[in-house]
Amino acid sequence: MSEPTTPLTASGATASGAAASGAAASEITAPPAGPRPAGRRATRVGPSRRRAAYAAAGSPVLLALPFYVDRFWLQAGLLAMAAAIGAIGLTLLTGATGQLSLGHAFFLAVGAYGYCVLAGDGEGAGEPVGLGLPSWAAVVLAVLLAGVAGGVFSPIAGRLRGAYLGIATLALIFIGQHVLFNAHDLTGGYNGRAVPPLSLFGLTFDDSETVVAAVPFQAMEKLWYVGLLLLAGCALFARGVLRGRPGRAMNAIRDHRIAAGVMGVPVARHRAAVFVLSSMYAGLAGVLLALVFQQTVPEYFGFILSLEYLAMIVIGGLGSVTGAVVGAAFVTLLPQILTRYSEVLPLVSAPGTGGVSPGEVSRYLYGAAIVAVVLFLPGGLVRLAARRGPIEKDEAERP
Amino acid sequence: MTAPAPDVPPLRVRDLTVRFAGITALDGVSFTVEPGSVHAVIGPNGAGKSTTFNVLSGVYRATSGSVRLGDEELTGLPPHEIAARGVARTFQNIALSPYITVADNLMLGRHRLTRSGFLAAGLRLPSAAREEARHRERVREIAAFTGLEGHLDHPAGALPYGLQKLVELGRALCMEPRLLLLDEPVAGMTADERRRTASVIAGVRDGLGISIVLVEHDMGVVMRLADAVTVLDFGRRIADGPPDAVQRDPAVVRAYLGQEAAAS
Amino acid sequence: MTTFVELLLNGLSIGAVYALIALGFVIVFRATEVVNFAHASLLLAGGYVTAVLRDDIGFLAALVVGVAGAALLGALIEFLVIRRYRGRDHSVLAIVTIGVDIVLLAELTRRIGSNVYPMGDPWGDGVLTLGGVSVPHTRVAAFVTAGLIIAAFLLAFRLTSWGVATRAVAEHPETAALMGIRLGRVSLSAWAVAGGLATVAALFLTVFPTPGLERGTSLAALKAFPAAILGGLDSTTGALVGGLVIGVTQSLATGYQSDLTFLGRGIGDLAPYLVMLLVLLVRPAGLFGTRELARV
């Protein structure tokens, strides 16, 4: 209040302001009356410090895992990391901005196949086209390509809202499937195409062995660190966006799009921009998935995959970066765990034996989890953890 | 009426007509808001007050007529373009983000005054951090001015109704507007909250010199604050002038104040 | 020319079936403002019940049980799930129906497996030939049945108290509730009707020339989504026009596929979505959708 240059603090205004604030002070000491929607969420105690403590405790474990865990679990973990990157992108769009998308699988495919086309050498008869770019450049360009694909959709992504956009994005799935199955030269058709390994600073992330501390490092071990790095970068970037000016505009569009426009947010342009950003996250997730699978097949990038990503962000907690990561881990690891332990688990039988397969069981579980989480646990699994402790500030619970 | 700030132009509404689906919500309405004045728009329910606001802020499109702020034509511009010309508004029904803190709700008002995009925010560039800190400081001042500084860290939805309406007002002020549109700013408030809000509005008029257009049912507040009053009934202007003259206008007494008098 | 007329008639017939699905979708949307992503699996459920029962109790009885079963399932979803969320954000509700869809789809695809269930309908593979133009009996039956059902519904919407209540709720739920309309009943009946309509549609999606009900039938049902949004989500007229547009487009694109080989195989299945995107580019609210007036 001490700056005399600002008109608000000038002359008569100060008196009424002070009077008002005095009255306000007396009012806040009493808790807000009645069952207000977010009353109990008002307390927060240094979430960032707690988070930093978790990170400090968790990161050595994550870094050491490749030395102790076998390939199966490393691959499962990497799939979860890739899914987490894609889910963060979707939660920016659906959770923070309130724009439903069923087309996420399409952008994953753009990233995965884009990388293959850009990095593949394309040699040999019958091989699909490859531009032979250095693999790191192919990663960057594949992500940009996914962004461009999202941008091409922006006339629709900017103008349709909520569930309407959800239906419109169905088209992307079918366009994607059509192109993947038909454009043999680019995609290899039904059988897909092999994924060229990533190669950075002379280190190739394939199954050629590199021995580190008496542990043989193959593709999964090496990729593990790439995955960790990418995920950390993506999560931090998304959190920065959510906490900053763009994030506030996104939340405003979700909560009250007319007010957002009146406050000066160009709603359509902003929606389109978030759609592009979300597509780029999906593109990067697609690249990482391709590197882990080492073969891309068109069938994978279908309708069900898009549903899985929606399941991830809802189960973890809409609009929350941590929630997206938790949800991605849940939805990705569940079938893997069920497969691994199908003999000992009741009601689950190994794939192909005629009973209920692990994939199906996990689909029942996460389908039901979506319904249950929205019904009983608005805010998702993240909120469950937060209920016992402080509340995270920027993680709103509904689209 | 206080001396207007130098860059505040007059608002001229001319022959504004709005029709939807066969209903004429506004029928050739004209009025002028002098720079630095508080101009009240009153009338019974359904008179077209909210429609007027929605046209002024770009939410609705006018069927014909014009709205000019100084030399600039506002009709036909989308809401964010109108906001960019220094027009801010509050909403009759609260339009805040309930799960976001009051501080961040207020920061939304700074949107048009700030520049950080996705890259700067995502990468936490120093420029973005500096901009953020600078504007948070200003938001704190405005919060203090509106009596919200004790609530900055609370989710907006957790505040009592009257305070939420103040957050609406604070958010509009955070846009540093030249023209402020207040849609029933004291509706639903307790007598105490009403008095406080009125004093904040008076403070804005006296301290900032910006123009204010006020839609309000509370005649006490209108008569106390307004420099000029336009009365609407069934989408038409039935009176226009200084408050005491309007109050005595027989057409107004018949259409509006008469009802009020009979009711109270 | 004959080919064109045949394709057009086929398209109109399949379009009428899409219109049935889209109509159920729009009825649910108008009654509850929920975009029901579980609609396709509701259709698959009704079709599955019909297909499984027809050997034991005969086609007609199986169809009746199928319609009733899907109506019951729809009502159950409304009662057990959707009702608990009333007043919540509609995008969240749409996501909840996605959760329901995942569960139903997982269960049904598991049961169906790689089987193909013939419907055992009375029309078989008969073909009607008139002036050189031949159309399968099933297509004629589909067009007539769908047309009758749709006409009945449009009349019911205008004339019965149920229709008036549903329309009132769509206009303004709070006011309708104050006028004594029971929102729960309107919503429940909308879901049941949607299930029943979807089952009739399932029948006509799986009869000749299609071999029968299979896993992929729900993907065919998904084409009713573009039909509904193309017409405008809140418009029954839109659902009809949207259904017919989608049906004709698909039929023509499939029929002239050999002339469109540069677009790749299976362009007929993609065409409805491309048409939807084109329409949305020009009219974001669909052909007959109302651009809702913001109330602030």
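qc> The longest strand of chain A covers residues 210-212.
qc> done
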